[in-house]
Amino acid sequence: MWIYLLCMNVIGFFVMSVDKRKARKQQWRIPEQRIWLVAVIGGALGCTLGMYMFRHKTKHTIFVFGLPFLSIVHCSLLIYYYIILS
After folding, report:
1. What pTM was computed for the model?
2. Which residue, of 30, 43, 45, 57, is most buried by count of CB atoms within 10 Å of its CB?
3. How far apart, in whole angstroms, are the C-alpha atoms of residue 47 and residue 57?
4. CA 58, CA 68: separation in Å to the nearest integer?
């Protein structure tokens, strides 16, 4: 499980990096739905870190509040799973 989450967060970080690079070059972009998909299936923290590190999607309110909120939800679920259920 930890390897999966690590991989998904690396992918989330990478997705934000690639999309920012493509935005600067005015090339084809990664769809926002795909960014959200990566975040929802475990890469929220990586997407959030990438968003702030690359200053990408920071003018979009849904990303500024949604990605950190999703990161908190994921962390809370992990804590619940490992502390409460174990």
Report:
1. 0.90
2. 43
3. 10
4. 12
Q: Measured over all CA atoms, what is the biggest interatomic distance in the chain, rounded to whole angstroms?
A: 49
What is the SS3 string spanning the chain?
CHHHHHHHHHHHHHHHHHHHHHHHCCCCCCCHHHHHHHHHHHHHHHHHHHHHHCCCCCCCHHHHHHHHHHHHHHHHHHHHHHHHCC
* Cβ atoms 38, 47 nearer than 8 A: yes
Among the listed residues 35, 52, 40, the one whose alpha carbon sits nearest the alpha carbon of residue 5: 40
Q: Which residues lie below 8 Å from residue 28, measured CB to CB, with a gap of 6+?
A: 22
- Directed axis angle between helix 2-24 and helix 44-53, to 10°? 30
- Per-residue pLDDT reduced to its tens digit, 52-62: 999 999 999 99
